[in-house]
Amino acid sequence: MLPTHETSGPTALRGGLSQRQLNMIALGGVIGAGLFVGSGVIIGETGPGAFITYALCGVLVVLVMRMLGEMATANPSTGSFADYARQALGGWAGFSVGWLYWYFWVVVVGFEAIAGGAVLSYWINAPLWLLSGVLMVAMTATNLFSVAAFGEFEFWFAGIKIAAIVAFLALGSLFVFGFWPRHGLDFSNLTAHGGFFPHGVGTVFGAISVVIAAMVGAEVATIAAAETANPERAVARATKSVVVRIVIFYLGSVFLLAVIVPWDAERPGVSPYVAALGEMGIPAAGHIMNAVVLTAVLSCLNSGLYTASRMLFVLAARGEAPMELVKVGRRGVPYLAILASSIVGFLCVIAAWLAPGAVFTFLLKSSGSLVLSVYLVIAISQIVLRRRTPPARLRVKMWLFPGLSILTAAALLGVLVLMAFDPNARMELWLGLLSWAVVLVLYFVPRWRRGPAKAEAATHQPTGRANRVLVLANKNVSTSELFDVLRRVDAQQRAEYFICVPVNPVDTGQAERTGPVFVLDATVTAARERLDAILTAMQGIGLSAAGELGDYRPLRALDAAVRRFRPDQLVIAEARSAWLRLGVVDKVRATYPIPVMHVVPGQSALSSA
Predict the structure, then answer these.
(1) Which residue of 56, 286, 475, 542 has the lowest C-beta tally within 10 Å?
(2) Rounded to 5 degrees, what are φ and ψ at 274?
(3) CB 238 within 8 A of CB 221
């Protein structure tokens, strides 16, 4: 909770993510059920040529991550690419990317919970919905405990799955190159059983949207970096290692799978790694690999919930989601954002219970076009922002700019166009476009309905002879703006003034720039600076002024100040959007039967009632 008055000191927060933890989050971010289980679906639909699909997607992801790394090192942010889209293209882009990326990750949370439940059923005879629900509860609790707990969990679980992939690459290489007992050099599975492209070359490109969705996760490090002590260095290290991660984890292992196991032996929902280890004659292959798959699933479920909650936190900080979602607990976690994001995961678990046979494959494919469109916005944002960024801030640079950046954006757009002509991917594309249409309507319609500011009926006009004036500084106001108002309510400058500054992470702007684990301290500091600046300016021209920090909820802060100071006029600095909530000014006017002046920061117009 945030302090409610000036005597309440900030709660001590015991650190965020360490560089060690962030490095492992970056390394393990791309390894989940999409690789260990989903690769079997892709190989089964594409054939041995699935390796080409993964190679093409790997190149695109590497390029997008390089572009994102350039922006993130120049301007680390909890909102990451949603903030960059807003800066480059406007509010609509940041709003859309933020909500669509949140939607993608909450679906991933449900997908990973279902995948984890399916893995557990290998050992435990229990309903899928029950096993998945248990995993959801466990990972929600981990995220609610502290960001350090999340980071430590990710460090060890990512380490396990990375070690498993490295071991598989080593053993698989020995097997296919003829260094395995009773097995010679054999690449026949690449051309047997119908050839390298048994379903045609087109399937290689048709599966790109699904594979990219499985590779998503590398960019989580740019979001998590805001909760480290040195965000710029953390992002730089994480993004520079993405090439190695993609090449080793995906291209190497998928190539070995295609060589070791016939492509038509793969079955959706069953890990191809289990089949590969069984083909190599490794004892207890099923138990070993399923344990690794469970580790990977839990890791991605954990990081997915983390990512979704932080994106929701930033949306709330922008006034584009309910403000209550920026509430931070004593351990530095946005607990309401975490709980809200986990609800969709539980809904997916319920869907798995009602339709267990279809949910896994459907969830795997349902968000592919959203990822592509978000990546396209990232690419366009980098092209725009590169020209606005001072060279000294470019610690990580996109290769061969602007040519390669433009080529990357064109390739992403080309994949989306290709999906429109692919009968198997067309529905994904239209559903993705529908999702964009929905969020754009949510962005533009409230603004259209509000229209330009209208003059309001004045029932309690300022008299110019106030005796006790209470100022609620909910937004930063310039000295000239403030003094312009004060001349109207206190023409002779004889009144007493009391300044109340809510300690609100949204209104101070700290929730937009600071990770949740650090937002409390930063908010208190910013609110104190705002209060001191206003008091200094007023006292400098001879006005009698005192003040305090108030509750993080502006209306409660105002109510406490009214009861303490008993003013005869109110002045409120407030300019936040009324989206999803009523405006502070309207509520104040309905509550207090005294004149209320409304200061709109950055505008000369003032309203009174």
Answers:
(1) 542
(2) -65, -45
(3) yes
CA distance 323 to 577: 11
**Statement: residue 581 has pLDDT above 70:** no
Task: Tell me which amino acid residue 143 is.
Answer: N
Contact 128, 114 (CB under 8 A): yes
d(CA 488, CA 433): 51
CB atoms within 10 A of CB 278: 16
> In what helix (H) or strand (E) does residue 520 lie, and over which residues does it extend?
helix 516-540
Give the pairing type, strands 544-550 and 496-502.
parallel
Is the Cα dihedral 303, 305, 308, 310 positive or negative?
negative
Tens of pLDDT, residue by residue over 240-273, are 666 666 777 778 888 898 888 888 775 555 678 8
* Burial of 589 from C-beta contacts in 10 A (0-12 / 13-18 / 19+): buried
Per-residue pLDDT tens over the stretch 102-126: 888 888 888 788 878 878 887 888 8
3-state SS of 42-101 is HHHHHCCCHHHHHHHHHHHHHHHHHHHHHHHHHCCCCCCHHHHHHHHHCHHHHHHHHHHH
Instruction: Write the CB contacts of 37 (distance below 8 Å, at least 6 apart in sequence).
Output: 115, 269, 270, 271, 293
Bridge partners of 545? 497
Name the residue with tokens 């960024």: 389
Q: Around Cβ 609, how many Cβ atoms within 10 Å?
A: 18
DSSP state, 120? Answer: H
**How high is the pLDDT of residue 407?**
96
pTM over 0.90: no
C-alpha angle 318/320/321, rounded to 5°?
Answer: 110
Mode of pairing for the β-strands spanning 606-608 and 596-599: antiparallel
